[in-house]
Structure to design on (664 residues):
């Protein structure tokens, strides 16, 4: 089977504000209460109280993880914060932008995959359902979550599986969005702060010879995190499995490090970035926002949109995406640009203060 | 299609604390009419977790599954965690399926959560799992786990259709299955009613749900080249027993084909109903098909046809 093709990508990153300003906004929001979530916050305490009280994102069961060389977010750190809409609104914004760029006779969307780690305004809502209702035709909508930054890698893998397994499926819409607001904290341990963002991409079964971003391979897995270490001399538990995953992925396609033109990873763990750069003999080319800011499930799609804006789509070009998720997740994807995409790749859209 | 893909082992866990709808109605200030309507819908008792969270219930179901199946932990290729309520997760950005991997030593497993089709999520996940098996020849075994806990007593009410109970299930889906082979999966999703209880669209969608269920059951059975007469049992979601009887009348299926014992015993255990019923339904005849059905608020329905 021909590899699936990513025919369109779009992303939205809201205006970045100083962390100190967010802290003031958050205090005001916390004071108003959150009827949709307060009962759950209380109910989580027996099992997760140590996390809820010590700060979200810790992985060491009490002791705080300190990654070698990680800049701790300070009050001047600039964080993208969405103030105009909720999580499902962010998801709809990018989905509609992407669908509006399709020709009127485009095939209907068969599958919608919504990726996220932050939660919507009320426990009973469904963002995947809203996306399905917005697209307007019955399809197969569902969410992939609880993998933090790795959900889009799993979504791409499942999209590829569905295209193999169900010949009538042609068009899959993957949407990722994150919006952090009380009672949930955007602070992730001591090393990272979550920013709000959204991204969408269309994965399609296309005719042979169609140009676009070919999904050559993708993988995601879980790594035990009970061995995550804070010493500067000890690698993050995800490092070796991630390097091994990248090695295997390149080997499966008979490629070497020099065959990859762009390497785009996640921020927040400099030791991981350095290890991948060492392996592939080139620096990470995707960094756009502050290294202590992570856009969660939206991170990889935002970065993909950024490199596609820069890449010359008329020539052969390969990109390796890698990412991680709190809780011990890693993912990689190998993409090949083959001529011009069948649909225009949307630019990364962001508020003026966050333009790349 | 993979001819021998099936649900080889199923286990479930229900919390020990049993409550009845009348006591619940008094405690939460429900009207006598509401309680009578719930009893007409088939509800009598339900289980409540009393402080346990979803991971505790899910872990108990997984533990039971591992004990009864004898499957080694390294032989699990993937964990798919399903749930109805957004809150049945680990506090974000943590991962409940990741924590299950750590707790049980599923060192070779992928792990992710499949959700947002509400109570239809478990059966809808079978479609993705089937695709994984078709596209990945190396994949031998997936662990499907579902759990939900409702910490707000007053929000257990599912209109007059049922009462939401706490519980969990775990099931192995494998190649080379000798029982419960998966013949067909059908689903319908409109996303209408995506705002859940904030919009309360379910009354408006009731008629649509009925017609959707009827056509979905017919299509799923036809997909596998069976007739409705061939179906030995229907394992339902535990909502609105009289509506199930009307649906069966409409399909000309005898009422005794419906496995209805658990409506009164456990209430509506969200994503777990069909799998609890699969574990408890006795007398299933080898070689004959059975149908699992689930509906999630928000406009989601799913059916799976198995052969014993």
């Amino acid at each position: 089977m021909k590899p699936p093709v990513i025919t369109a990508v779009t992303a939205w990153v809201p205006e970045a504000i100083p962390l100190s300003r967010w802290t003031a906004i958050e205090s005001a929001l916390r004071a108003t209460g959150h009827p949709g979530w307060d009962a759950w916050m209380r109910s989580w305490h027996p099992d997760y109280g140590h996390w809820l009280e010590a700060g979200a994102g810790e992985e060491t069961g009490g002791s705080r993880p300190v990654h070698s060389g990680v800049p701790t977010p300070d009050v001047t750190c600039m964080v993208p914060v969405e103030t105009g809409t909720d999580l499902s609104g962010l998801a709809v914004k990018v989905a509609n932008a992407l669908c509006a760029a399709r020709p009127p006779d485009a095939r209907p969307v068969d599958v919608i995959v919504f990726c996220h780690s932050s939660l919507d305004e009320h426990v009973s809502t469904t963002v995947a359902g809203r996306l399905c209702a917005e697209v307007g035709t019955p399809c197969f909508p569902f969410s992939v979550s609880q993998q933090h930054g790795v959900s889009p890698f799993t979504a791409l893998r499942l999209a590829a599986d569905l295209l193999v397994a169900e010949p009538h499926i042609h068009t899959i819409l993957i949407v990722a969005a994150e919006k952090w607001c009380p009672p949930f904290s955007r602070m992730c341990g001591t090393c990272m702060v979550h920013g709000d963002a959204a991204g969408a991409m269309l994965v399609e079964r296309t005719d042979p010879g169609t140009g676009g971003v070919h999904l050559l391979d993708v993988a995601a897995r879980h790594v035990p995190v009970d061995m995550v270490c804070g010493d500067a001399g000890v690698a993050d538990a995800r490092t070796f499995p991630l390097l091994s995953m990248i090695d295997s992925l390149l080997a499966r396609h008979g490629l070497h490090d020099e065959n990859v033109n762009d390497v785009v990873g996640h921020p927040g763990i400099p030791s991981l970035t350095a290890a991948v750069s060492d392996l592939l003999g080139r620096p990470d080319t995707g960094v756009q926002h502050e290294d202590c800011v992570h856009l969660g499930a939206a991170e990889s799609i935002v970065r993909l949109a950024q490199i596609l804006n820069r890449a010359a789509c008329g020539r052969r070009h390969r990109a390796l995406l890698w990412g991680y998720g709190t809780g011990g997740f890693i993912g990689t994807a190998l993409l090949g640009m083959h001529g011009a995409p069948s649909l225009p790749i949307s630019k990364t859209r962001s508020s003026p203060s966050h333009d790349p | 299609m993979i001819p021998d893909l099936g649900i080889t082992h199923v286990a479930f866990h229900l919390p020990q604390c049993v409550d009845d709808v009348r006591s619940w109605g008094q405690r939460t200030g429900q009207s006598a009419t509401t309680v009578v309507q719930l009893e007409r819908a088939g509800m009598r008792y339900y289980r409540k977790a009393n402080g346990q969270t979803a991971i505790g219930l899910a872990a108990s179901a997984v533990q039971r599954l591992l004990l009864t199946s004898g499957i080694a932990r390294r032989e699990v290729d993937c964990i798919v965690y399903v749930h109805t309520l957004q809150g049945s997760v680990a506090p974000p950005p943590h991962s409940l399926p990741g924590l299950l991997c750590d707790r049980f030593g599923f060192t070779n497993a992928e792990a992710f959560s499949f959700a947002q089709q509400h109570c239809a999520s478990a059966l809808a996940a079978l479609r993705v799992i089937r695709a994984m098996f078709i596209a990945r020849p190396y994949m031998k075994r997936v662990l499907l786990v579902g759990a939900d806990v409702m910490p707000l007593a007053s929000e257990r009410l599912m209109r007059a259709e049922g009462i939401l109970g706490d519980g969990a299930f775990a099931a192995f889906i494998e190649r080379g299955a000798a029982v419960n082979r998966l013949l067909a999966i059908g689903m319908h999703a409109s996303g209408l009613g995506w705002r859940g209880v904030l919009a309360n669209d379910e009354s408006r969608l009731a008629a649509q749900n009925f017609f959707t269920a009827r056509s979905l059951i017919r299509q799923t059975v036809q997909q596998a080249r069976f007739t409705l007469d061939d179906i030995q049992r229907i394992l339902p979601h535990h909502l609105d027993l009289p509506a199930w009887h009307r649906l069966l009348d409409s399909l000309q299926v005898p009422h005794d084909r419906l496995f209805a014992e658990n409506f009164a015993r456990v209430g509506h255990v969200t994503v777990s109903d069909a799998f609890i019923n699969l574990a408890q339904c006795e007398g299933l005849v080898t070689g004959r098909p059975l149908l699992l059905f689930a509906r999630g608020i928000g406009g989601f329905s799913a059916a799976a046809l198995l052969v014993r």
In short: Chain A touches chain B through 69 residues (CB under 8 Å). Confidence is low (pLDDT under 50) at residues 60-70, 227-234, 352-356 of chain A.
